[in-house]
Amino acid sequence: MQRKRVTSKDVAEMVGVSRTTVSLVLNDVKGIQISPETRQKVIDAANELGYVPDATAQALASRRTKAIGLVLTRSQHHIATDAFLPKIISGLLTTAKKHNIRILVDWVETEHQESAYFELARAKRIDGMILSTPRLNDKALKALESVDIPTVMMGSITGSKLPFVDVDNTKAAEKATSYLIGLGHRNIACISNAPPEYTAAPARVAGFKNALSRMDIPIKENLICYADFDPESGYECMKSLLQSGERFTAVFVASDNVAIGAKAAIREANMHIPDDISLIGFDDIPWARYSDPPLTTIRLPAEALAQSACTLLLDMIQGNETRQDNHLTLETELIIRKSCKPVS
Amino acid sequence: MQRKRVTSKDVAEMVGVSRTTVSLVLNDVKGIQISPETRQKVIDAANELGYVPDATAQALASRRTKAIGLVLTRSQHHIATDAFLPKIISGLLTTAKKHNIRILVDWVETEHQESAYFELARAKRIDGMILSTPRLNDKALKALESVDIPTVMMGSITGSKLPFVDVDNTKAAEKATSYLIGLGHRNIACISNAPPEYTAAPARVAGFKNALSRMDIPIKENLICYADFDPESGYECMKSLLQSGERFTAVFVASDNVAIGAKAAIREANMHIPDDISLIGFDDIPWARYSDPPLTTIRLPAEALAQSACTLLLDMIQGNETRQDNHLTLETELIIRKSCKPVS
DNA sequence: GCGCGTTAGTAACACGTGTTAGTAGAAAGG
DNA sequence: CCTTTCTACTAACACGTGTTACTAACGCGC
Questions:
Q1: Backbone angles phi, psi at A151, to 5 degrees
Q2: Does the beta-carbon distance from A290 to B264 stay under 8 Å?
């Protein structure tokens, strides 16, 4: 054991040809003439020796690492409680595997963002990167635009020229809110998924407001609250809404994960869903359909989003970036279950 | 823009020294004499030029990629619904970042396992790997023992000599079951977290049985059921248990994620927790404490597990693998909430 | 016999770094 | 003044691959 590494030189020597020939054959380079017999002998020898090309050497020579980065920009705690991450990773892995590409997960701490993006790009450890949940005050984003590494955002941000893949958060939130209005609700609260600097949060609140405005329902700012991704923040938000004295018969919670906590607060207040309060979520995480009652929510195609982002990024890496429509908006779907009922 | 890459040669030329000197200074190599002035000049020049060493070239030369792999061996669907993955990743990232190491997530499809592990190891893209949720029938594991890449398992497997980090699943399950017995329950069902080939599943069932045996409670095999990681499988298991005609007043579900579905089945049967059935879970995912009623469960230190695995792996990579105790067992904790009550 | 195109390859360089062996020059010791 | 030791570096090789420019051999038409 611990036997010496098998290199292409070993394969070449075994067959009695040059290393170049081995490389040409195994990479199946077009427009070059190698006799079929030699070709076969090389392939056989490579198999027999168990030759696997060294990824780093390939990367250095070809200037392609065959890896892309998934860059997370949230705190450790937020990553740990993110009910969404598995779907992103699953989607990414699926598409990446098809193209024989690896996924590097990286984490940029808030404080050192600027240098961190930069180093990642310059170190050339990856061929491109996918940014998740962009934030408005992320100064380093502008820097990224001028760095030469292909980048795709999951989630959009106004003012940035980076290509992105997203859903129409505003429209989706509008859809959810309109559903509640259609059931007769007029006093509706809103708990957004995250602090306002995360772009999806204000977008969803905007959709909420749009739906109200369209029906001439006055918007009460103190029925709007910003959570912070996790169940706990949802619990706190709902609790303060309930204690505020404002009356409401329905709540739009812009994240199922947050809704987990919000539900607990409603229950603690001895109220029932949907009899006392109608609740609608956002994301459709696996928990939603098994909740009690099953949660009506907006289905966000997380895996498809990740797959599209990955595909788009790979396109860019291969140089097809001339396409002008370098962004993609996927559809959401209202999943009606049993957590909302007509106002009595 | 798109300006030429800055290499150590550029830094060297700017200062007027050799590339070697630049390398020695920036890597802070011990036992070598470089004058303080030169040292400072090199550092200044590197900063001014924005020099970032090329990761692939470093990897090739030093034979360290400064990356470790997290290898997932489950199906795409199981990865997507894994409520546990975020904590693993969070834990890994935390420890990895401290050592300036990157995380590569890889996915080995069941069919091609043997070659896949092998290629990963041989391609030397990573310095070591962490295997999650090992399976008994994973033939490739034995192969891995003889390959020269450091490997740590999260979860244990009898007969394997690979170092691992795990909790004592049997003891933890015993603790959970004993708690139910202590409340007076005698007819207790068990839904395991996964199919029996995943080692944690039989271990937890064994703990369940141990607890019963110790109190001379007969074990009814048809009160034991194996789920498949996700809520849906928990729903199905619970449904079939309820329809089996067997009587039981409590259930030990060896995974909170599975318990999500099990709860739904109980509710559909018009039964209530904890009045009709006591329910105890395993893992303590974020949802558990906000569940209705809050779920009593066994807390599994997921992030600590990941951190320990990472630390152990890094130790091995650095060559401190002589230590005989190359495995670690972390403690679990019974978290008592409100989903269990004494039998009436 | 000679030019010419084709076939089947190869030598040599590039990629950007880490690292070892060695070397000028100065200081020290006798 | 010669030898030795130390300081402060550098030349050169290694890592394992991709790729371009070049060539030896051979057949073929004339």
A1: -140, 140
A2: yes
Q: Which of residues 58-117 of B touch A (CB under 8 A)?
A: 59-60, 65, 67, 72, 76-77, 79-83, 85-87, 89-91, 93-94, 97, 102-107, 109
Burial class (CB in 10 A: 0-12, 13-18, 19+), A312: buried
The token duo for B203 is 């271990």
Helix A19-26 with A36-49: angle, nearest 10 deg: 90
pLDDT tens track for A131-173: 887 776 666 666 666 677 899 999 888 778 889 999 999 999 9
Instruction: Quickly state the pLDDT bin for A313 (edges 50, 70, 90).
Output: very high
Q: Which pLDDT tens digit goes with each residue over B282-303?
A: 999 999 999 999 999 999 999 9
The continuous run of DSSP H or E covering A239 comes out as helix A231-243
Cβ pair A125, A88 in contact under 8 A: no
Q: Give whole-number Cα distances, A4 to A13, B41, B122, in Å.
A: 15, 41, 11
E strand spans, A151-288? 151-154, 164-167, 188-192, 224-226, 250-253, 278-280
Tens-digit pLDDT profile for residues B82-124: 888 999 999 999 999 999 999 999 988 766 666 677 777 788 8
When pLDDT is cut at 50, 70 and 90, the band that residue B138 belongs to is low
According to DSSP, the β-strands at A102-107 and B102-107 are: antiparallel
**What is the spatial distance between Cα B150 and Cα B317, in angstroms, rounded to a whole number?**
6
Distance between CA B133 and CA B156 in Å, rounded?
Answer: 8
Q: Which residues contact B226 (CB under 8 A, 6 or more apart)?
A: B191, B192, B194, B195, B196, B201, B237
pLDDT at B82: 86
Residue B1 in this model has a pLDDT that exceeds 50: no
pLDDT digits (tens, 9 = 90+) for A107-137: 887 666 666 777 777 888 999 999 887 776 6
Inter-chain residue contact A260 with B231, CB threshold 8 Å: no
- Mapped onto helix, strand or coil, the DSSP state of residue B34 is coil
Q: Tell me which amino acid residue A252 is.
A: F
Tokens (6 digits) for A150? 């292909």
Tokens of B252: 């030990």
- A78 SS3 class: helix
Q: How many CB atoms lie within 10 A of CB A112?
A: 12
> For residue A120, which of B41, B67, B105 has the smallest C-alpha distance?
B67
Which chain A residues are closer than 8 Å to B231 by Cβ?
Answer: 286-287, 289-290
What phi and psi, each to the nearest 5 degrees, are found at residue A132?
-110, 155
Please give the structure tokens belonging to residue A316: 């860019």
Give the distance between the most distant pair of CA atoms in chain B: 86
Question: Residues A214-218: what's their mean pLDDT?
Answer: 97
Chain D footprint bases within 7 A of protein beta carbons: 7-12, 14-20
Nearest CA in chain A to B262: A290
Q: What is the predicted pLDDT for the residue at B33?
A: 85
What DSSP string runs through B71-106? EE-S-HHHHHT-TTHHHHHHHHHHHHHHTT-EEEEE
Cβ-proximal residues to A131 (8 Å cutoff; 6+ apart), any chain: A71, A73, A141, A151, A152, A153, A154, A155, A162
**pTM (2 d.p.):** 0.91
Name the β-bridge partners of A335. Answer: A297
Identify from A56, A88, A271, A295 which residue to disrupt to test chain B contact, counting B C-beta atoms within 10 A and taking the largest count: A56
The total of other beta-carbon atoms located within 10 Å of residue B156's CB is: 20
Percent of chain B with pLDDT over 90: 76
Q: What is the pLDDT of residue A1?
A: 38
Q: For chain A, give the longest Cα–Cα distance.
A: 86
The confidence score (pLDDT) of residue B134 equals 74
